[in-house]
Amino acid sequence: MSSIGELRQLARQRRRGGPKQRHPENLAGYVFLAPWLLGVVVFTVGPMIASLLLAFTDYNLLQPPTFSGLDNVVRMISDDRLWNSLRVTLVYVVVGVPLQLALALGVALLLDKGMRGLALYRSVFYLPSLLGGSVAIAILWRQVFGKEGIVNGLLALVGVEGPGWISHPDYALASLIVLHVWTFGSPMIIFLAGLRQIPQMYYEAAQVDGAGTVRRFVSITFPLLTPIIFFNLVLQIIFAFQSFTQAYIVSGGTGGPSDSTMFFTLYLYQQAFTELRMGYASAMAWFLLLVIAAFTLANFWFSRFWVFYEEDSGATRGGGRRRKAGAA
Predict the structure, then answer these.
(1) C-alpha angle 117/97/175, rounded to 5°?
(2) pTM recorded for the entire structure
(3) What are the residues facing 35 on neighbouring strands?
(4) What confidence score (pLDDT) does residue 318 get?
(5) What average pLDDT does this structure show over 254-259?
(6) Any alpha helices (H) in 163-317, and if so which ranges?
(7) How many angstroms separate the Cα of 283 from the Cα of each of 48, 146, 250, 253?
(8) Quick one: pLDDT at residue 126?
(9) Is pLDDT of 305 > 80?
(10) Host H or E run for residue 54
(11) Using CA atoms, how far apart are residues 151 and 291, in angstroms rounded to an integer?
């Protein structure tokens, strides 16, 4: 009995000394987290708070900011170029993102067949995603779609005289959309990873039932891949709204011709660093944040109607309903 009592007393002493014993480990964890926490506060949270405060001021970078209330908001409402830049950006997002994801999914389906040199093909197709937002590629794009560029050279071979794609208001934005679609490598890799996670037994059962390729894609591949499609959709919409380099280089920083490539971010840059209206630019940045947040929330709300999540029972759920993932 005495030994049991001693053991209990020793256990209580250890419990009391536990926090003190763990204190060095906690301190080490905080030390390792300190650079990341410092970076978040200094480079993310701090600038966000500062820009929010500047959004209600008149600030030209040369003089101290002065409080102006809602003047910047009122100015945004009556700024026609701002709304045109938002329209251009929306066209870029609404047209470019679906085309990019469709191409990425199509290439991923081809690579999922297990062809030889798969690693090489993955690297080659992923390379544009690494280079697509660079200044060098934007300059190259000007040469490809210029009046004397490669595209018009190919059209001339069949007797067609092409326009100056990047210098014509009707085609300049389309050339940037093509550049965006060309950078499909990142979502393609994610799609390919998702395709590798689909159990082969579903396809085998569908083949036994006589389902063709299209039927297997509609009834098996697409439903089980909808979470990956949704993930890529949200990410690419956010990235597309923030596109800047392509429009800046192709248009020479003007957003021309006739503001046809004036992205919202490019107009924000002009207001901040060309017109020195930092307060107005800060208000524009927060407006863009609200627009992106609205699109993201809308995507999450609509996802309940078309995104299906596989459960342990082998069924998938979407919009509160259960459907068999492997039904052909």
Answers:
(1) 90
(2) 0.83
(3) none
(4) 44
(5) 90
(6) 172-182, 185-196, 200-208, 213-216, 222-241, 245-250, 264-269, 278-306
(7) 11, 35, 26, 21
(8) 77
(9) yes
(10) helix 46-54
(11) 35
